[in-house]
Amino acid sequence: MIEREQVLHVAKLARLKLSDAEVERMAGELSGILEHVDRIAELELDDVPPTSHVVELENVLRPDEPRPSWPREAVLAQAPDPAEGAFRVPSPQAEA
Known about the structure:
mainly alpha, 4 helices
């Protein structure tokens, strides 16, 4: 079981201010998490290949194929301050 002092130490590292009730609740919740980790550590997983997802995923996006777009002139006609065939935007450095 996680002790009160350990919860307070983690809260201090995370710069969290916890009430006494929250400290007690966190001690119980963190203890539960560590119990689950201990149970997982007891499993025999040597022959289980590592996975990044439980369910096999395949590309769900549409193919990236070129297709016609809006004419540049039509898009830039709506821009407040176009320059040399492109959008002009303020420099983030100029704001500093």
